[in-house]
Amino acid sequence: MVIRTEGLTFNFGKQTVVKSLSLQVPGGSIYGFLGPNGAGKTTTIKLLLNLLKMQDGSIHIFEKELQSNRIEILSQIGSLIEQPAIYLHLSGKENLLNRALLLEIPEKRVDEMLNLVHLTNAAHKKAGQYSLGMKQRLGIALALLPDPKLLILDEPTNGLDPNGIIEVRELLITLVNQHQKTVFISSHLLAEVERMATHVGIINNGELLFQGSIKDLEALSQPLVQIETENTVDAANFLTRNNFKVADVNDHHLYIPYSSKQQMGEINALLNQNGYTIYSINKQQKDLEKLFLAITQNA
Fold first, then answer.
1. Contact 202, 230 (CB under 8 A)
2. Which residue, 81, 105, 160, 190, is most buried by CB atoms nearer than 10 A?
3. For the whole model, what pTM was predicted?
4. Are residues 200 and 266 in the same domain?
5. Looking at the domain assignment, is residue 75 inside a domain?
6. What is the pLDDT of residues 271-298, one digit of tens each?
7. Which domain holds residue 261?
8. Co-location of 186 and 240 in the same domain
9. DSSP codes, 26-58
10. Domain identity same for 201 and 251
């Protein structure tokens, strides 16, 4: 495990923000740390980065205890918490050169990072003129400059437009698959994490509700086919007779566990051929709130 915590607890005064947290982050994974705003994600990350002093429990990173191996461990971690620390009056390349000078890193590494995060063409543009997505990619480049083994990112897609979100997602997948990094990323967006993570931990009110592989999560967050038709109960009975499992039905919609696009097409064709008018048919994913309910009910 690249990150392993046991019984990690942290209090702000009388308020317990992190409650006996036991994380297990495998090497070579993208670990999505999910939870609503205020769940304890940023506090946990600050504890992992030794920005907050640990109160109870233990933290092991690279199988070494954090407190007694602080400098050795932190030198192998790159991080980005909320907003990147960049100088807006400097160009993207100048920001990286400045950091490289401080860390005594060869200048050629700067060009490599600009290429990796697809900012070569904007290298000499002032960072203050960058889009949000470009700023986030520059922040990730700054975190990657010393070639860390582990990258810890706190809400890196916050405030980004769809293009920016896709850019950051593709970059993180590349880092893991082609550059042998481990990525620990916090987010409150379930759908976004599902698109890139290999492992997931879900936290709420400081407690870890779920931890496992993305396949384990998908079993809990089973998407549904939502069908709107003129007589939902009759259509549901018809589909049941034709070996389709109906998950739910009400006056306006019926729901069937989703398995594939082909399945949706088969259902649509079958209903149409048998005289049922379909007003709409689409795939619906559980949102984080519904997933929390499913987890707590199964606990």
1. no
2. 190
3. 0.79
4. no
5. yes
6. 999 989 899 998 887 666 677 767 765 5
7. 222-287
8. no
9. -TT-EEEEE--TTSSHHHHHHHHTTSS---EEE
10. no
